[in-house]
Amino acid sequence: MSDHELDNIVKKVRKEKKAFSNKAALDTSNPPLEIVSRTDEIKEIVDYIMDYEQGQVVPLVSIYGRSGTGKSTLLKHVCNHLPKVKLCFVNLRKAKTVFGGVNIILNELGQQSLTSAQGMNVAMEKIQETLLNMMDLQKKKLFILALDEFDVLFYDKRGNPSDFVYKLVELIADLKQKGCLAMIFTISNNVLSDYDLDERIRSRIGNSEIFFKPYSKDEMLMILQQRAKVAFDKKINDEILEECAKISFLEHGDARRAVDLLRVSAEIAAKEKKELAVGHVKVALQKIQKDRVEEVIESLSQHSKLICLVMAAKTFFHDKDWHTTMSLYEKYKEYLDAEPVSYRRFSELLKDLENTGLLTSKTSSKGQRGYSSEFQLVMDPQIVGDIIDKDWWNKHVVEPKIALDRLNDAGIKKNSLLTGLTDWNMPYLS
């Protein structure tokens, strides 16, 4: 590529960037300019923290609620406002195991990782020693360990997450005996008591919980108006912001994704050299969904990918949203070329996929047969199929579905239709 061609690309990109006056205002990793509609939650956080002035704090507080409801942002905001409080904020998303989570904590405290052979007790001693030195040096009154994405640790079935929580609570008690007040905030989508914890933990942590309700559509709109005012030179049409708020409220209630939707919409409009319009929001939504699904699916095991593919195919082919665990498991076994996982492990994988946000579940009554879990794919099945295996998806799902619909349109009865298609490779008819 010549210098002239490169200069033209730079000029083109620079021109596109002029659609924004301050694009950083639409970066969801940056703190918000102003906290919107979270007064009650802030007061609850402050109530728990300020107990340190009386020399007593609860060892662990569980902050929970859907993604994008401001949990992490507000805790940071409160702690950074209090000069006597030392916050160590740890994101456990990258932790593959419980011990991996311990090393992330050590790293955030400025210490090197330990090997698993050194053991959990050595790790806890190292954390305690580091905290005592830090608090003495910085003259703080309260240490707060915030564990974001806390539910990730419970994916590690061998690492005994319950015992890890117990050791953390014991650590807080030991620190208090040594004259150092400390507390833990766990941040996740579910309340801590929903996880598999033994009774010695439950009796120690009590019911110290703070629930963050999803943002309403009006609150979403307020957040978008606040960000848009700083991000753009021109006033953005309220109809566009209302569309972003409505979509985000109905789909997920996630303020971060609402801001992302506005940003991507503006980027698409800039590339087209057009004024930002509602139509760009629709295009941006499809792009974000596809990008997000790709990111999540890339991290999945082959078994989990196949589960998603089976789920997408059954949803697409039958125009049916909800599927029982058993129906999914039978199809998974039928189209797996390797040894299948057990039914119990399959159920665990479905729950793990639900935690990633790809699936949602409900419990339905089967009368005398009791209750069963049913799962629904949250994303467009076409997007999932294209990402995992586009060629397979088109050959075994899309093309047979088109053929089936044509015969159906011709008025052929269902039984005759199925008989007439026995030679087709149509794995999701049953």
Automatic annotation (TrEMBL):
Among SMART domains, the record links this protein to:
AAA, Cdc6_C
Tell me a GO biological process for this protein: cell division
- Could you tell me which residue ranges the AAA+ ATPase domain spans? 57-216
Sorted UniProt keywords: ATP-binding, Cell cycle, Cell division, DNA replication, Nucleotide-binding
Binding-site residues, ATP:
T69, G70, K71, S72, T73, Y215, R227
Keyword ATP-binding, does the record have it? yes
Mention one GO molecular function.
ATP binding
Domain named Cdc6 C-terminal is located at 309-388
What is the stated purpose of this protein? Involved in regulation of DNA replication.
Which protein family is named in the record? Belongs to the CDC6/cdc18 family.
What name appears for this protein in its UniProt entry? ORC1-type DNA replication protein
According to its UniProt entry, this protein's organism is: Nitrosopumilus zosterae
What is the taxonomic lineage of the source species?
Archaea, Nitrososphaerota, Nitrososphaeria, Nitrosopumilales, Nitrosopumilaceae
